[in-house]
Amino acid sequence: MPVTLNITKSKVAILELSRPEKHNAFNAEVIAELIKNIEYASGLDVRALVLKTEGKHFSAGADLAWMKSMADNDYNENVADSLELAKLMQVLATCPHPTLCLVQGAAFGGALGLIACCDIAIAEHNSKFCLSEVKLGLIPAVISPYVIKAIGERQARRYFLTAEVFDGEKALEMGLIHELSDDLAKSEANFLDTLLNNGPAAVKSAKALISEVAGKEINEALIAHTAKRIAEIRVSDEGQEGLSAFFDKRAPRWQTAASE
């Protein structure tokens, strides 16, 4: 199978695309498998989801043979195909668990959508990125809402139009990735340790809060909503445990459970 999902003892879902002979390019089968596994993982009691790929490169984006076959389809068939890719981006972006993306080598085209849809993205220092669609006479349409949200309209105005290759430093500067790493495995372990150290319900609630607040006008309704959200979590079992552990100078139960 080109896509595998494994759950670790610490309740981390590891989603891996294994198609290195095609530079982890995705086609209809890969997209369907990714959707299925992300949706399944979203319903599990896990603490995080890690997206990674096998081989030298993260992903070349859409498989050229698949794209050629779509070009032979009519407009309605192309819309249907594109909606599946759009669904992949949506289910990844809305996964209730914190998501961590690990990027090695090259990430081109639609691969930048996967990166932008994840909460945290780490890339190797020698990684390369490219919104390459216009080189093929196409546009990065389906991924555009997520990529523009990550890098901003001003940067999109350049890189959507030029299809320039840019390096990890530029990706970091633009906000596409959060950190450059000399050792992705070590960085993955560090980020997962950090995430698992926090209250599991609080982490999910904090992620949901971002969607509820980002881009909204600060008005009475939003203020009331945020007051309600903090009140709810303060009186929750996890909130009470976290506060008690802090004042008792002990580890909260979720930390001791994770270390067992």
Automatic annotation (TrEMBL):
The species this protein was found in: Pseudoalteromonas piscicida
Chain's gene name: liuC
InterPro entries: ClpP/crotonase-like_dom_sf, Enoyl-CoA_hydra/iso, Enoyl-CoA_hydra_C, Enoyl-CoA_Hydratase/Isomerase
Alphabetical list of SUPFAM superfamilies matching this protein: ClpP/crotonase
Gene3D superfamilies attached to this UniProt entry: 2-enoyl-CoA Hydratase, Chain A, domain 1, Lyase 2-enoyl-coa Hydratase, Chain A, domain 2
Protein family membership: Belongs to the enoyl-CoA hydratase/isomerase family.
GO molecular function list: catalytic activity
Protein name (database record): Gamma-carboxygeranoyl-CoA hydratase
GO biological process, alphabetically ordered: isoprenoid catabolic process
